[in-house]
Amino acid sequence: MPQSIAAIRYAEFGGPEVLSFESDSLADPGNGEIQIRHSAIGFNYIDIYHRKGVFGPKLSLPATPGIEGVGEVTAIGAGVAGFAVGDRVAYVGGPPGAYATHRNLPAARTLHLLDGLDDTLVAASLMKGLTAEYLTHRCVSLRPGDTVLLHAAAGGVGSFASQWLKALGVTVIGTVSTEEKAQYARARGCDHVVLYTRDDFRDEVRRLTDGKGVRVVYDSVGAETFERSLDCLQPRGTLVSFGESSGPVDPVNVSTLGAKGSLFLTRPSIAHYTADRREFETAADRLFAAIRDGLLTVDQPRCYPLSDAAEAHADVEARRTMGAVVLLP
After folding, report:
1. Distance (Å, whole) CA 174 – CA 153
2. DSSP tag of 187
3. What is the pLDDT of residues 168-197, one digit of tens each?
4. Where in the chain is the domain with CATH 3.40.50.720?
5. Where in the sequence of the chain do the CATH 3.90.180.10 domains occur?
6. How far, in Å, CA of 152 to CA of 196, rounded?
7. How far apart are CA 31 and CA 233, in angstroms?
8. Rounded mean pLDDT, 5-30
9. What's the angle, vertex CA 265, arms to CA 261 and CA 268, rounded to 5?
10. CATH number for the domain whose boundaries are 144-267
11. Residues 148, 169 contacting (CB under 8 angstroms)
């Protein structure tokens, strides 16, 4: 029997104003799917990319954004094992559609939630924490004593990554836009913080490393920082370009990487680091254990009602938020 729901929809690509809050109905879950009632929905920058239609294949319209959520199983489709109605679960990845009170999703993308973990905190940390996990543990092999540059160090991914990097014995240079964010980044593990609105981070990296450069740059900003990020690397260093909040990066002439020091460049996606179910579960276990054991501090997120998703999008794009954002149905 169809389930009555409320969801955010958009019928055209564009700014936050294209998002509308609508009533709808949801069919029973299909083969390999479960249906959940959301208790909290994670907000991620990829939601903005999807809304704009600028990241990967464009979604068929009308569409509902969102790839992360926490909730309770309310129905189970055919061919699903290991889940029962009433289970607390969390998910990340798979098809968009999280901005809704209820949704169907592949059981293969769903994780059982450990007792004692708060739903809102999990929604604030799963996507960002798993991104930080693969960036710091699997994307590049890091050693104690390495120095890295982390852009957007006070953001959702940045705050997790800086804590994990510090635990690995890595020196972290973070970039932020305000002094308030600088204080936050220092509290989350950054050894040095650069206000990119005041100082050229390339000059500061040279100063802080005595001209040697850093071994890795983690760049989620894109167009505004890419070229200067390359200049921050030491010979045979790696630029990890994992976002484009300022716009897409222009095509790169591969000979530039050689001229600047035999550099490495990667454009990773969490989809390829969690596609294998065992790898996905191992990464989630590492994240949940780090939160449970206090290795990672999860701040209370900034919460918006689901109906105010357009306001949340506008605030995040304008960099008026710090840390994670969660939508509450």
Report:
1. 5
2. H
3. 999 999 999 999 999 999 999 999 999 999
4. 144-267
5. 3-126+274-328
6. 10
7. 48
8. 96
9. 160
10. 3.40.50.720
11. no
Q: What six digits make up the tokens of 56?
A: 């990967």
Give residues with Cβ within 8 angstroms of 115, minimum separation 6: none
Cα dihedral 287, 292, 293, 298 sign: positive
E strand segments, the chain: 3-9, 20-26, 33-42, 68-76, 88-92, 102-106, 110-112, 147-150, 171-176, 192-195, 214-219, 233-241, 264-266, 302-305, 325-328
Distance CA 43, CA 141 (A): 29
Domain 3-126+274-328 belongs in CATH node 3.90.180.10: yes
What percentage of residues in the chain have a pLDDT greater than 70? Answer: 99
Bond from prior residue into 29 cis (ω within 30 degrees of 0): no
Q: CB-based burial of residue 218 (10 Å sphere; 0-12 exposed, 13-18 middle, 19+ buried)?
A: buried
pLDDT band at 208 (very low <50, low <70, confident <90, very high): very high
